[in-house]
Design goal:
Blueprint lengths: L1 H8 L4 E15 L3 E8 L3 E7 L6 H4 L8 E8 L5 E11 L2 H4 L2 H17 L5 H16 L7 H12 L20 E3 L4 E3 L11 E2 L2 H12 L12 H19 L4 H19 L3
Parallel strand pairs: 3-5
Antiparallel strand pairs: 1-2, 1-4, 2-3, 4-5, 6-7, 6-8
Helix pairs in contact: 4-6, 4-9, 6-8, 7-8
Bound molecules: zinc ion (ZN).
Zinc ion binds next to loops.
Length: 270
Amino acid sequence: MLSLVLKQSRIIRKMEQTEGIVLRSFDFRETSTLVIFYTRDFGSLKGLAKGARQKQKQFGSSLELYSHDFITFYKSRTSEIHLVGKCEQKNFYAGIREDILKSSFATYWMELIRELIQDKDEPLFEFLLSSLSYLEKEANLPSLILPFFELNLLKLAGYGPVLDHCVNCKKSSENFKFSSELGGIICPDCYNKDPRSIDVLPNTISLMKVLTKTQMENLPRIRVEPKLLGQVKGVIHYYLFHSLGKKPKSLQFIEQMMKSQDKVQSSVGV
Ligand SMILES: [Zn+2]
């Protein structure tokens, strides 16, 4: 695989330029870096930055996770891996990197984009930029920030759950359940369509609808009780893990970190 990449990288290609955000980067051979970007004009894009670990001046910190860059690359006709010529960093998000909770959230978001999105989608690219900017500048992160991001990313990726009526028969009801299999709420007449559907309270459905219709900046104004927050997170994760086919590794890290923070706080009586 490695020799194939290098062989293909020798074929000269058309130069392209776009903005992108680093979703992942790996060391490649002794001096190079392989990068996955989410770009404004090409969607998910894999690039080889040859000699990047030697050319510190040329690439600087532009290949670090969630760096926002202006990328010049040479498009391959034969390989899905393109040759990165230059990356001019537009935003390093230093304010995220110096805070372990914020950086774990941004890392999780990059994993979700990698898993859910391949195609070009400008609204999604803008959503990602505005989410990173908000995360960087906000001193007190609202408790709904992760459910908000997860739900809106699912929506932008085309997996938005149906929350206005039964996803199967379109009827209204007072007693909906939530079906990951069918992608939304289901009424009592349709419970048998998905035996693994879960209970969901009307308040939870209402809050999920609000989250898909607001902006991240408005989240601090939404008051939410811990029990309701727990159910909203539970329903969104139930659906998200079903869509992904797994639980994201970086979310497991966030959960462990938050648990250990709670332990520290309770041991000092906060
Ligand atoms: Zn129904």
